[in-house]
């Protein structure tokens, strides 16, 4: 997957396996403009930013995710938790767990029936329910206890990739929250897991050995 926009003479190769692409935009107005164009691409609107594969433009409506709020970093986004439940339901109804899942559901109904019979009210209830009810009852969700923001972001991106398919993640100003050492570890993991990432920053930081950097300075010169 490659990215091109008007100021660049060469495409950014987001599929590199040896380096993570970093784009530094020091001009505030163009920084905002670039992010707006990225957002348009993610919404299937006309954008001057083009993503392509083998010289063919890509529809990025479902293949692009912009992350820019890292404190707090929300892992349990509603649409992703829904996909988690769907995935877990397939496991629960699969060959390995089907019998035990059916028994658990029947035991649950038997228990509710006994409770209803011991209440001094005329009651009625459904004798069927979705498997997802069991997960909602215990509030199944993604773990948020991380010692490192970098690790949490990587796990989130990997979960999204597994549940929603391959995406390009645009990380806006992530570098402001992570030390040089932690950033190196983050890059190593991203490259190892072959995640497609573009780090966009409004200011420059020391160059890491795991990144390839393009700088657009205050005068809109590309360095």
Automatic annotation (TrEMBL):
It comes from the Bacteria. It holds the Pfam family Cas_Csn2. Gene3D superfamilies: 3.40.50.11940. This is Type II-A CRISPR-associated protein Csn2. The gene is csn2.
């Amino acid at each position: 997957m490659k990215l091109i926009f008007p100021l660049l003479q060469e495409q950014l190769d987001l599929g590199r396996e040896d380096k993570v692409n970093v784009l530094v935009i020091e001009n505030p107005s163009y920084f905002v403009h670039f992010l707006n164009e990225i957002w348009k691409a993610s919404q299937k609107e006309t954008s001057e930013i083009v993503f392509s594969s083998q010289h063919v433009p890509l529809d990025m409506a479902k293949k692009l995710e912009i992350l820019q709020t890292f404190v707090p970093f929300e892992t349990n986004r509603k649409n992703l938790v829904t996909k988690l439940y769907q995935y877990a339901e397939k496991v629960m109804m699969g060959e390995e767990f089907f019998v035990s899942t059916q028994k658990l559901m029947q035991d649950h109904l038997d228990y509710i029936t006994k409770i209803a019979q011991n209440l001094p009210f005329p009651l009625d209830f459904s004798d069927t329910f979705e498997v997802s009810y069991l997960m909602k009852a215990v509030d199944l969700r993604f773990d948020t206890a991380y010692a490192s923001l970098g690790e949490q972001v990587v796990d989130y991106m990997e979960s999204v990739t597994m549940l929603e398919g391959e995406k390009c993640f645009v990380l806006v100003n992530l570098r402001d929250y992570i030390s040089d050492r932690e950033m190196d570890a983050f890059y190593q993991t991203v490259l190892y897991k072959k995640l497609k990432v573009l780090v966009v920053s409004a200011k420059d930081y020391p160059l890491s050995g795991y990144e390839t950097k393009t700088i657009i300075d205050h005068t809109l010169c590309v360095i």
